[in-house]
Design brief:
The complex is a heterodimer of chains A (84) and B (257).
Chain A (H helix, E strand, L loop, with lengths): L19 E4 L2 E4 L6 H7 L8 E4 L2 E3 L14 E9 L2
Parallel strand pairs in A: 1-5
Antiparallel strand pairs in A: 1-2, 3-4, 3-5
Chain B lengths: L4 E3 L2 E3 L3 E4 L9 H8 L3 E8 L19 E4 L7 H13 L5 E4 L12 H13 L3 E6 L3 H10 L5 E2 L13 H10 L5 E3 L5 H9 L4 E4 L1 H4 L4 H21 L21
Parallel strand pairs in B: 3-4, 3-10, 4-5, 6-7, 7-8, 9-10
Antiparallel strand pairs in B: 1-2
Helix pairs in contact in B: 1-8, 2-3, 3-4, 6-8
The chains are: A mainly beta (84), B alpha/beta (257).
């Protein structure tokens, strides 16, 4: 992706093409061919900052760039917080 | 004192386990861990709230000196607990897990049946499983069968600071269960922790009482001393309780005659 270019989170798919993913329980449209790494950089999330789970599988930070997101995928972005 | 607690193949010197929720600032946590002496520290897994700019608590926990114990809080059944545990392990949090399955929002009491199911699955996958439970002997025996590394009965409801309300039931677990019995939840003061340890609990897990004290590091140290005092008392063997007085010096040779 050329430098400086970014997709708004409200990216609208081409007419007649419904590509949606679920992120932390909320549906959102997404552009075809995007990787986990590209999605995270749009969210300004650095590798290793949060835990990424794609369809119940943890994606390690080193694999973010090569892991594609597909139509209907469920993405969870998780964090370890204080707990008892 | 050479009195280690061995759980899941790890030897622990400290019998105070620390929860990390509700502290006024994460930056305080390293000092709290240091003064508590805790070697087992619990954390929770949540979805990121993008509005809240949440910090990763692991930035404040020195894992060279602490075993991380993610909990499965938020799980309402065994399947959800298993899923959380697997994610935490795959994300590099180690293989210890505190099973916490709760359906009850008012008292946050654990669901022993679902907890047993989750324990069996996760122990079978090589996790070191420490289940949070209601103190019930049949359930504790089932957890032993399921492969738990310890059982963690509640002293009173989570965060209530009410102390060892379940004392008599926990005493039975300590007598009857061969695994370490770790009193988890409800201990509101160091004296409550000492009471649990004097009774023979293997350890206690404390969060709210420390995190919400006026001086959390100070309270962490107070709990550490209380746990140690209670343990020493247990090992020293408490003497019998008597209804009547028993003089400390001979009742002869008085100077009055």
């Amino acid at each position: 992706m050329p430098e400086g270019r970014s997709f708004a989170l409200t990216w609208i798919p081409a007419k007649g093409v419904e590509r949606m993913i679920t992120v932390n329980g909320k549906k959102e449209p997404f552009p075809e061919g995007m990787s986990v790494g590209e999605y995270m950089s749009r969210r300004n999330i650095n590798p290793g900052e949060y835990i990424v789970v794609l369809n119940d599988e943890v994606i390690k930070p080193e694999d973010w760039a090569e892991t594609p997101i597909r139509d209907g995928d469920e993405l969870q972005i998780l964090v370890m917080l204080g707990g008892g | 004192m050479n009195d280690p607690l061995v759980i899941g193949g790890r030897t622990l010197e400290s019998r105070l386990f620390l929860g990390t929720g509700k502290f006024p600032a994460n930056a305080m946590i390293p000092e709290v861990i240091r003064r508590s002496g805790a070697q087992v520290v619990t954390v929770a897994l949540r979805r990121v709230d993008f509005e809240a700019q949440e910090e990763n608590i692991l930035n404040y926990i020195d894992r060279k000196n602490c075993i991380l114990m993610p909990n499965t809080s938020g799980a309402r059944n065994a399947a959800e607990a298993v899923k959380i545990a697997r994610i935490a392990r795959a994300a590099g949090c180690g293989n210890w897990v505190k099973i916490e399955v709760i359906n009850d929002n008012r008292y946050l009491l654990p669901d022993n049946y679902e907890t047993i199911k989750a324990t069996e699955i996760l122990a079978g996958e090589g996790f070191v499983v420490l289940p949070y439970m209601s103190p019930d002997l049949a359930a504790a025996r089932a957890l032993v069968e399921a492969g738990a590394a310890a059982v963690m009965p509640l002293g009173s409801p989570i965060g209530s600071n009410r102390g060892l309300k379940m004392k008599e039931m926990i005493r039975i677990l300590i007598e009857e269960i061969e695994l370490p019995v770790i009193v988890d939840a409800g201990l509101g003061r160091p004296s409550h922790a000492a009471e649990a340890m004097e009774m023979g609990a293997a350890a206690v897990l404390v969060n709210t009482a420390i995190a919400t004290a006026e001086d959390p590091p100070g309270m962490a140290e107070a709990f550490s001393l209380a746990v140690r005092a209670g343990r020493l008392s247990y090992l020293a063997g408490s003497p019998e309780v008597s209804r009547y007085a028993r003089a400390s010096s001979p009742l002869t040779g008085f100077l009055r005659d």
